[in-house]
């Protein structure tokens, strides 16, 4: 079936994967994608020629308005955003993450277009107030990136009440080839034997790239049934951090992570506290993610979106294999 699809954020881990899958499933569709005018030549060359490139920075609200005045789409998949920890002003974060989303909401409402929005489980904070986090769990604006996602969700929910056809998908921290975030850094820390780990039971809930890709792609066809939903996307089950660390260690070093490298949990608490004193949101989150549990209710997403079932152990192996190949 031919569709007119607008995709933002195609140079990111999730965006590249979603674009590839859309081109496979909808070869006759008209797919447009926003690209920053300052994007490198290598990024531009990686975009298939069948994709209509729209040179707009999401922070350029006036340029975005002008483009949308004459545009026409059936579906918008809005993945683009400034992620946490980037060196950008709060004004740039707000324009890119909130004001651009507001423009897409208005456009989708005015033109009767479906909007599929990529939020984040970070709306519950780095560490949710209840486990597993679900749609009744309170928002936590514990850093500015999470704040922008909370604002976007509120704007979308307000528009849904007025008739907007939209769905919110909240991926957990996603692991896939090409991203250098938390999962990749975890592999490196374990490989170099500098990963701080305690005897405390810490449960984490990552997301396989194929799972979040399927969520966005399947939502394109299932929008009539999904209107108004907000769904958490992650692997089928959480995993103990210690188990994942041991799994990674066996893959890259042929044995479990050495027990003598364990540290007292109070040192991680001190690190978190010190990072907060310095107002360093990135390091605060890093200490939280390895010292406290973060688990999400994903059952509704699997039921509604027919997602592939992935389990962090052993499915994380493609990441360690990639690390060994690069090494």
Task: Tell me the strand order in the biggest sheet.
Answer: 3-2-1-4-5-6-10
| Shape summary | globular
Structural class by SSE content? alpha/beta
Q: Mean pLDDT, nearest integer?
A: 93
Termini, distance in Å? Answer: 43 Å
What is the CATH superfamily classification of the domain at 4-179 and 204-237 and 295-309?
A: NAD(P)-binding Rossmann-like Domain
What is the CATH-assigned architecture of the domain at 4-179 and 204-237 and 295-309?
3-Layer(aba) Sandwich
Largest sheet: 7 strands, parallel
Q: Radius of gyration, rounded?
A: 20 Å
Write the layout of secondary structure elements.
Elements: E1 4-8, H1 13-25, E2 30-35, H2 41-45, E3 52-55, H3 61-69, E4 75-78, H4 90-111, E5 114-118, H5 144-161, E6 166-171, E7 174-175, H6 182-191, E8 203-204, E9 207-208, H7 209-226, E10 230-233, E11 239-240, H8 241-253, H9 265-277, H10 281-291, H11 299-305, H12 312-315, H13 317-326
Parallel strand pairs: 1-2, 1-4, 2-3, 4-5, 5-6, 6-10, 7-9
Antiparallel strand pairs: 8-11
Helix pairs in contact: 1-7, 3-4, 4-5, 6-8, 9-10
């Amino acid at each position: 079936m031919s569709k007119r699809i607008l995709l933002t954020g195609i140079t990111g881990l999730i965006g590249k994967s979603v674009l590839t899958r859309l081109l496979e499933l909808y070869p006759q569709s008209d797919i447009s994608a926003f690209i920053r005018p300052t994007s490198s030549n290598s990024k531009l060359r990686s975009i298939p020629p069948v994709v209509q490139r729209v040179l707009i920075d999401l922070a350029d609200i006036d340029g975005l308005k002008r483009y949308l005045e004459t545009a026409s789409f059936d579906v918008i998949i809005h993945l683009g955003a400034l992620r946490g920890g980037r060196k950008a002003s709060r004004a740039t974060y707000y324009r890119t993450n909130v004001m651009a989303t507001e423009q897409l909401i208005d456009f989708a409402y005015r033109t009767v277009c479906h909007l599929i929005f990529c939020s984040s489980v970070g709306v519950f904070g780095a560490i949710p107030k209840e486990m597993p986090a679900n749609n009744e769990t309170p928002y936590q604006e514990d850093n500015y990136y999470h704040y922008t996602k909370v604002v976007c969700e509120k704007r979308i929910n307000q528009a849904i009440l007025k008739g907007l056809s939209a769905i919110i998908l909240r991926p957990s921290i996603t692991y896939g080839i090409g991203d250098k975030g938390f999962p990749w850094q975890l592999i490196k820390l374990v490989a170099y034997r500098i990963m701080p780990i305690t005897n405390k039971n810490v449960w984490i809930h990552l997301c396989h790239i194929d799972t979040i890709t399927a969520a966005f792609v399947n939502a394109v066809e299932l929008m009539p049934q999904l209107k108004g939903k907000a769904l958490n996307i992650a692997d089928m089950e959480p995993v103990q951090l210690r188990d994942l660390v041991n799994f990674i260690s066996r893959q890259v070093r042929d044995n479990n992570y050495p027990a003598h490298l364990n540290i007292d949990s109070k040192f991680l608490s001190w690190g978190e506290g010190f990072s907060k004193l310095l107002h360093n949101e990135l390091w605060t989150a890093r200490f939280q993610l390895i010292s406290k549990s973060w688990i999400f209710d994903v059952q509704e997403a699997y039921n509604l979106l027919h997602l592939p079932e992935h389990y962090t152990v052993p499915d994380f192996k493609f990441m360690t294999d990639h690390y060994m190949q690069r090494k």
